[in-house]
Amino acid sequence: MHVDYVDPWPALPWLRRRRRSAVLVGALTLAGVLGGGAVVMAGDGSGAACTAPRVLRVAVAPELASVVEDAAAGVAGEEPGGPCLRTEVAAADPADVARAVTAAPADAPDVWIPDASLWLDRVRAAGVDLPPESPSVATSPAVLAVGSERARASGWPEHPPSPEELVGEGPARLALREPATDAATAMALAGLLSATAEEPAGRAALAQALRHAVQVPLATREELLAATGTGAASAVSEQAVLAHNRRAGADRVVAVHPPTGGSLDYPFAVLADDAAAARAAGRLLDALQGHGAQEAVAALGFRDARGIGRPDTGRELGVDVAVPPAPIPAAQLLEALRVTTVITSGTRMLAVVDVSGSMAEQVPGAGGATRMDVTTEAAARATALYPDDARIGLWVFSRELTPGHDHQEVVPIGPLGPRDDGRLGRELLGRAIAGVRPLPDGDTGLYDTVLAAVRRVRQDWDPARVNSVVLLTDGRDDDEGGIGLPGLLAALDQESDPAAPVPVITIGLGAGSDTEALAAISRATGGSTYVAEDGADVYAVFEDAIGRRSCRPGC
């Protein structure tokens, strides 16, 4: 979303007024800030002997502001051979600063200490020139916080809950800020996506949890942690957990570390373009890296720049500082943001099921169940992953099910909740899925059906939803009078619209499925293909396809 800024800094709502002994924090502006701010100078800070002070404007993540203010007070005074120094410190939300700096780079603060380097990466990606190196002054791993009762049920403190457990316990179990504007949330979600990447059921459960997540876009850290009292897991930093648990009377929460969740790294970015400000910034950085400031950093619950926490931090405080930091590439964070955004977008999907005669064959390892049995069971499970506003339809296909067509519409695309005729879509789909039967001696008109399904979904394409086709078949196209694979691929290419993608996720059931053709269809549409060899595979890949189809195309 584009945001216009006329006077960027004063218009932002995130400035917090703070008053400390030698530090006065007032209205920090990106343009014309010399008249106010956090005043830090020699002596009593009155500035009586200073007629032309050099102002160092510092924007810092709120949770670290007190340490920066104290460090600024410690280096206040006359610069040898130069002007006296006045420092203004603003506790500023990193996402808001990133937007302001992107909109007006010339008015950027002299020093910016966001909670994570991802904000610097985002501003660079917008074309703003930033320094290549920004040393860290503190770190804190991104974690999922859960209530102590829920943690004990999983064996804490001996065995803390795993990320997979947190997303597999049912819907509405996550309390999240908007990941595009909160680094800890983005990192925690990246860790969850990584933890469930190789587990189809886990990825499906995560998709369900994200769709039912408690959204708290404007919540403070404490409001977010308060959600753990309802059984939710909240994405925060380890430092937030420690700060919460150290307060008398606070309900204790426990930090769960995703294995690759990343850490907030609080980079010290010097944005000033003049030598005097750069020297002043260097003095402030030296102070923040000094023993006194680092002790203050640790006292607030942060780890140091190396990711090492205070060794005397007991696990009764809900964290395990022995867990090493887990670096996460910027590209993985951006991918997590994209996938999460699309997963939580609305759904518009057409499920297409093969009802040819071979679907009556038994599936190895399925206890006598047929291919159709396991398909309908998996489809019923997958449908349960979606909320009532999801729009889903069902087709079946074989050969010439209706005059001139190999497919038949069983349930039109519509909401799982109440439809226009008053009936519940979820019940319609449930009854329809349960009633699907294979046709004796039925053949497989695969290619014509794929093209018809893509065209149907492209009709009424909804930009607010992920529009997709999920197709399951156990055979090969045997329609001699049909379009054929080359014709299908050519038509898909000719009719494709990058602005209105319709990915086709194909699932091949058993050795008889034409996996090469299915893979070609999925590649052509930006989808993916799966192969299920036995009963266990059917459930796993079908749920994974449904759970992950939201991040198609491109993942």
UniProtKB/TrEMBL annotation:
SMART domains: VWA. PROSITE patterns: VWFA (PS50234). Transmembrane segments: none annotated. Residues 348-546 form the VWFA domain. This is ABC-type Fe3+ transport system, substrate-binding protein. It comes from Geodermatophilus sabuli.
